[in-house]
Amino acid sequence: MSVSDYAETEGLPAADRTPYKPWSYDTASTKLYIPRLAAGQDRWFAAALSDDKGKAPSRLAVFAERPQHKRWEMVSVVDLDSPKLPDIALDHDRYATAVAADGNKHLAADVGVLRAAVLDNFATGGTHTGTKVFTPTTASKRQIEVHDKTGTRYGDQGTTVFAGADNRYKDAYALKTTDGGALVLFSHMHTQTDAVAHSGLQINPGKEDRAWLHDVPRTSIRYTFVCNDAATVPAKAAPSRLIGYTCARTDASGPPVPSWSDRV
């Protein structure tokens, strides 16, 4: 996601680039959730972060140890829709409890169900599983709105279809909450394919697409997105809550219109 941000910026004319501003998180308001892990378990922790001094956290991040790189890396970060964080269960030493995100029978939904529901929000507007797995929240409504508004923006001149993509980022992290449920942090990938309704029409890429499409008109464009998601899941059979998600476009491709193809 970070690399795609750099690529998109480098594809813009210098005049359109936003000047880089150094940034940092306010350590005084940071909340760390460090799970007590057994020997041999992968080491990771979650952090609730704010980039404004004295303000409530606005992001949830996961940091994981990567022995092959001999360093710790931020492997996920989600923008939260509300500063109110779920109540994480802490033991007498203030350690959090890590729980299984996949195949956990003690949760109403595991990460596979959550990921499928998020993809359904984009693909169908939540018709199949999205609105069944998630109770309405700002984040889930926003995903459904992306489907509804983007899918109809071309009218009868073109179509937009969302679909799941082969997910390269299958790691998921979960912390037990005080109600017996869990906070689950995970990633997904999806595509958005825009296509003209008939020959003679073309899609003109926007300036944000220049890094991948180089201002060449296309008959269809397939965008790939990588997203980080955060959800709270109850222990009993009840809907989960999507509390935030963050997406980045990481690729775009598509066939040029015939007049451009002939030039090549």
Shape: globular
Instruction: Please mark out the parts with pLDDT under 50 across 5 or more consecutive residues, or reply none.
Output: none
Secondary-structure-derived class: alpha+beta
Number of strands: 9
What percent of the residues sit in helical stretches (DSSP H or I)? Answer: 10-25%
Q: What number is the mean pLDDT?
A: 93
Largest sheet: 5 strands, antiparallel
Order of helices and strands: HEEEEHHHEEEHEEH
The protein's oligomeric status is single chain
Strand content: 25-35%
Euclidean distance between termini CA atoms = 31 Å
- The helix tally amounts to 6
Cα-atom Rg, whole angstroms? 21 Å
How would you characterize this protein structure?
The protein is of the alpha+beta class. It is 19% helix and 30% strand. The chain contains six helices and nine strands; from the N terminus they run αββββαααβββαββα. Strands 5, 6, 7, 8 and 9 form a five-stranded antiparallel beta sheet that branches. Strands 1-2-3-4 form a four-stranded antiparallel beta sheet, with no helix packed on it. A hairpin with a 5-residue loop joins strand 6 and strand 7 (182-196). The mean pLDDT is 93.
